[in-house]
Every structure is written in C-alpha cells, then in structure tokens.
Design goal:
- By secondary structure, the chain is α+β, with helices and mostly antiparallel strands.
- The chain has 2 helices and 5 strands.
- Strands 3-2-1-4-5 form a 5-stranded antiparallel β-sheet, with no helix packed on it.
- α1 runs antiparallel to α2.
- It is flat.
- The two termini are 19 Å apart.
- The mean pLDDT is 76.
C-alpha cells in the first residue's frame, strides 16, 4: 500500500503538471509558433468592466491595427490596459505576435500581455492542488 504522504505528493504533482500543460499551452504558442510583426497603435478604446452587484469601471485598452503578409488589415484590442501601455502614444509602431492562420489571436508582444493571465491562473491551480492534496481528514 502507498503511504498517504506519497499519495498526496503524487496528487499534488499530477495536478501541477496537468495545470501547467493546460494553462501555458497557448502562451508557449505565442513564443515558439506564432509570427512576430508590427502594428500601429491607433487609439484607446474604453471598455466597461463589471465587478458584480452593479459596480463597474471603464478601463482603456489599446486598439492595434496590423497587416498580414497577404495584405489583409486586422484590428485587435489588447488585454493590456492603458496604464500598462504608457510608453506608447497613438500612431506609434508596436511589436505584436499573431497566428497567421487565425489573425484575431494577435496580441502586443509584451510579457504582461501574454503571460499575466496564465501565471495568475497557475497560482490559483497551485493553491487548489495544495488544498486538495494535503487536506486534513
């Protein structure tokens, strides 16, 4: 029979590895598979973010336009907020990364834009894995 401590450690490691594979799959495609290019920072788009119970706030997200190799123009709203995008001004050329087969996946080529959400979710998965694996009975 397997000792309880070893079983808990195995469960923790399994959840950690499985969570990492799922959460970091898409960002790793941004790094190793997708194409890099340049886009034009057009303007800030105000987006309403709800915080529940009738509370909301408006955050500015940069609107970026770029042209793919086939000459098609595309626009996307970055996950970054205006505060995280301060070094740039409207009309500046910014680095982007995108899947040429599906250009709507484009994002600004910055660490916060690509890795922030998966890293935050991974931390939550780790807390869940710890709670499930080592809970007191």
């Amino acid at each position: 029979m397997i000792a309880k401590g070893k079983l808990n450690m195995f469960l923790f490691m399994a959840i950690t590895i499985f969570g990492a594979l799922i959460l970091f799959y898409e960002p790793l495609k941004f790094v190793y598979v997708y194409e890099r290019g340049h886009g034009l920072y057009k303007k800030v788009v105000s987006v309403k973010h709800s915080y529940g119970k009738g509370r909301y706030d408006f955050l500015g997200h940069p609107l970026i336009e770029f042209t793919t190799a086939d000459g098609m123009k595309h626009e996307f709203r970055s996950y970054l907020t205006y505060d995280e995008f301060l070094p740039y001004q409207a009309g500046d050329v910014v680095p982007i990364v995108f899947d040429p087969a599906y250009p709507v996946t484009a994002e600004v080529d910055r660490i916060m834009a690509i890795w922030y959400r998966p890293a935050l979710l991974f931390i939550l998965v780790e807390f869940f894995a710890l709670a499930v694996s080592f809970k007191k009975e």
